[in-house]
């Protein structure tokens, strides 16, 4: 007899009918050791005949669970192996095998051990597998169908730039386990397990997004397609997700407004360390210029990325700017957050530094975009700036994942607190409000301003009604001049301080031979 393993003794062999007889004799004679004994089948790994003092049952051990296949009195060794194989196929296809196995075990008892009839009841033969198109049209849907059809319905309501991020939560790899499972067979246990897996792999906030969007998706299908989706014939009481698929999460509010010297130091550091690693490409002129523009104007990166060269033109003094050399950047209706045109006056100093960086791009004049990409004739993506800031902090961005890697944390070395591009808007608002120009910040950033006693700080309902007829150029210019001068002054101070440090050492890039990498240069 094998040695005890936990609460069950254990014996491994290629199981035959003799093992069933032996198990029966042990039960009848009261010689079952301890709590019981497991006869493990060498012919089918995971298949076990578990014998206790009271009974013998076939079980199948899976990676995440254990299934009962039936009583040894009604299920032969060959039948147990076939049932185990069919259950494994269910798991492989993304189906929950428990219901089929339960049907099989019950049928074996009621038919007196008729394996063929019981197997047909539990696993009916599919004469012809449905195509994806037929399944989605006539049902019942699999989970992957639900996701694809819901996203197709949702796409027109979402910003094109945001849609991939929205879809990524419903297509998280944690959902792969149920992708091919009929929606009606998905259980609360499945959904809760997926939620927990996303928390472990990513974060609680990511799981909260997946749960919120998933609940919306299931509500949509339940309300509009309960028949064709198969949800009306669900095996569990539905809609189970409304009270059994939840997560406690409250997003924190960011209150960080970076100081002007931190923003200016970031610009100086980004210029000084254009190449951040031996395998990194140097920061492209379009990306660096876009970082400058964002810090100097506080505009949303989506609109900034889509700025064309023809959108920038001189603006006459009689339009309300305080002197010559000013430029006007114009975004058409639909590019900004609201569906109306928006004009921002740009001081000469701001345009000078942006133009200086862009002059490094040899293809500048042939690309229609103000911030040209180094790849093709497109523009710099709005995600490029986030990636640049992460790299300056010694982190790597792969898709939607940010990971640490052995690069230098230039933010930490130079005493820069981590900040996001949206934080620039908060910094501008704080700075101009401290100078009694909160109304200018509101006009520059296209925000509603609160009511104050200063007329320049007010944006009343009447002003709002006249907004489409007046871009409030004088007010914007006053705020832009003050902010840009402060940033440029701080930048010169930070650049001078960095110049006093030893020059950065740039390692030679590895030369790659055909089919393999050469040793790294010392």
Automatic annotation (TrEMBL):
Entry's Gene Ontology molecular function annotations: DNA binding
The keyword Disulfide bond appears for this protein: no
Domain Integrase DNA-binding stretches: 41-99
Pfam families for the chain: Arm-DNA-bind_3
UniProt superkingdom: Bacteria
Similarity remark: Belongs to the 'phage' integrase family.
Name of this protein: Integrase arm-type DNA-binding domain-containing protein
Organism: Methylobacterium marchantiae
């Amino acid at each position: 007899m094998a040695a005890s393993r936990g609460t069950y003794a254990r014996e491994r062999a290629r199981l035959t009918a003799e093992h069933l007889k032996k198990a029966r004799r042990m039960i009848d004679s009261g010689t079952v050791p301890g709590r019981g004994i497991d006869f493990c089948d060498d012919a089918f790994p995971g298949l076990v005949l578990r014998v206790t003092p009271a009974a013998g049952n076939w079980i199948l051990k899976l990676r995440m669970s254990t299934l009962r296949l039936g009583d040894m009195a009604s299920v032969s060794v060959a039948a147990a192996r076939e049932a185990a194989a069919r259950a494994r196929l269910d798991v492989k296809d993304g189906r929950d095998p428990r219901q089929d196995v339960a049907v099989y075990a019950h049928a074996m008892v009621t038919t007196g051990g008729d394996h063929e009839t019981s197997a047909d009841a539990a696993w009916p033969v599919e004469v012809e597998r449905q195509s994806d198109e037929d399944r989605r049209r006539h049902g019942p849907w699999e989970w992957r169908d639900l996701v694809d059809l819901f996203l197709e319905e949702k796409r027109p309501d979402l910003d094109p730039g945001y849609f991939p991020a929205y879809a990524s939560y419903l297509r998280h790899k944690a959902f792969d386990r149920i992708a091919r499972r009929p929606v009606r067979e998905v259980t609360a246990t499945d959904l809760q397990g997926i939620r927990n897996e996303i928390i472990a792999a990513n974060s609680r906030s990511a799981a909260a997004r997946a749960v919120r969007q998933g609940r919306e998706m299931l509500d949509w299908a339940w309300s509009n397609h309960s028949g064709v989706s198969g949800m009306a014939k669900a095996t569990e009481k539905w809609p189970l997700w409304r009270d059994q698929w939840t997560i406690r999460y409250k997003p924190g509010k960011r209150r960080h407004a970076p100081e002007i010297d931190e923003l200016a130091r970031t610009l100086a550091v980004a210029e000084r360390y254009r190449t951040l690693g031996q395998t990194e490409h140097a920061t492209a002129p379009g990306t660096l210029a876009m970082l400058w523009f964002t810090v100097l104007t506080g505009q949303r990166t989506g609109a900034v990325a889509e700025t064309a060269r023809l959108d920038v033109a001189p603006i006459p003094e009689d339009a309300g700017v305080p002197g010559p050399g000013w430029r006007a950047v114009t975004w058409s209706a639909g590019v900004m957050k609201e569906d109306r045109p928006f004009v921002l006056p740009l001081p000469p100093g701001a345009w000078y530094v942006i133009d200086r960086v862009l002059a490094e791009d040899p293809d500048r004049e042939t690309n229609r975009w103000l911030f040209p990409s180094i790849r093709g004739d497109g523009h710099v993506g709005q995600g490029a700036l986030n990636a640049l800031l992460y790299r300056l902090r010694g982190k790597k961005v792969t898709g939607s994942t940010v990971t640490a890697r052995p690069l230098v944390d230039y933010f930490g070395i130079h005493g820069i607190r981590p900040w996001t591009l949206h934080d620039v808007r908060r910094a501008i608002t704080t700075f101009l409000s401290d100078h009694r120009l909160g109304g200018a910040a509101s006009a520059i950033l296209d925000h509603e301003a609160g009511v104050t006693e200063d007329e320049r700080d007010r944006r009343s309902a009447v002003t709002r009604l006249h907004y489409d007829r007046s871009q409030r150029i004088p007010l914007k210019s006053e705020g832009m001049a003050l902010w840009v001068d402060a940033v440029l002054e701080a930048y010169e101070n930070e650049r001078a301080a960095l110049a006093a440090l030893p020059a950065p050492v740039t390692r030679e890039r590895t030369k790659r031979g055909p089919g393999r990498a050469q040793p790294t240069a010392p």
